[in-house]
């Protein structure tokens, strides 16, 4: 583990960054901070290096990785063309939490990165340490979030250490990440562009910049509504079962008491405004309702906090579906495996 000040000075040499860049260059996997979450990087041009990422994370090989760059000059080596819409987005939001999907150039980086697709996701992270590391390495860096597959994404080096210690060559510790949820993934190969994953750049920010934007219909269907039965896969999940709740504070408190009377230890994750007047066995205040960027910032840390407590069930209060709230709800619903508890609706959606 190498500790680096978040505000690295571009004009100085950092032995820690040099060492990490050399290891990356030599085909090893290194975790590093970005403004969203920690990434697990490897040389995107090497099959063997990219395989190391999938192995360390236990990630299914059909899930493509994002290629990270430090300069827009690298784009033309990686993608076939950059259309005007993508160009406008790059000018407005890079470096930043927006991944753009382009038609890839064949044969320049490992096919394992894109899991057999003809497209590639590219992003330039807004983090001085990530940018300095990539510049020192001089390679495009494939990097998913640096968690074990299925776990919440890491927002500190300690989270990475907990999940991946012994499985990777090192961690560059640049402190806590900022945004806290991953980048927005936007497919720019279709017209209008389509959001495939909500994230750090909101729908509203995108439409303000380029006009109409579509949203992958499967996201719309899942996000604000209870899911139909049988939705199997869980992501970002804590150990105890998690339910997303929607209802008044009075109903929420009654629901907690009902579980407790059933012999269950109940954890509650909610904005501080709610937590301040609730009772449960373990309370986690996650940001403020009046500024959802604070909720996004501490979301994964908050979900992870329950793993150290002997709770039987976790209730997580839903937030408003606007701005970054859309990304927060997407992650919460996935962490819950689409299980909801809704006031005046006695069914849960298993
Ligand atoms: O903020 C982030 O994006 C973080 C940091 C480390 O940069 N990275 C990240 O990577 O979240 P990962 O691998 O956990 O998520 C990448 C997402 C996945 O949902 C993947 O399916 C999608 O991007 N993706 C990557 N390439 C794609 C492509 N060519 N077409 C469609 N989706 C793609
Ligand atoms: Mg991930």
UniProtKB/TrEMBL annotation:
Transmembrane segments: none
Enzyme class of the recorded protein, top EC level: transferase
Domain YrdC-like, residue spans: 14-201
Record field: catalytic activity: L-threonine + hydrogencarbonate + ATP = L-threonylcarbamoyladenylate + diphosphate + H2O
Any Gene Ontology CC annotation: cytoplasm
Keyword set, alphabetical order: ATP-binding, Cytoplasm, Nucleotide-binding, Nucleotidyltransferase, Transferase, tRNA processing
Molecular function per GO: ATP binding; double-stranded RNA binding; L-threonylcarbamoyladenylate synthase; tRNA binding
Gene Ontology process terms (BP): regulation of translational fidelity; tRNA processing
Residues that hold ATP according to the record: 59, 63, 119, 145, 153, 197, 236
Keyword ATP-binding recorded: yes
Pfam family, one: Sua5_C
Function: Required for the formation of a threonylcarbamoyl group on adenosine at position 37 (t(6)A37) in tRNAs that read codons beginning with adenine.
Family that this chain belongs to: Belongs to the SUA5 family.
UniProt name for this protein: Threonylcarbamoyl-AMP synthase
Organism field: Jeotgalibacillus campisalis
Upper lineage: Bacteria, Bacillati, Bacillota, Bacilli, Bacillales
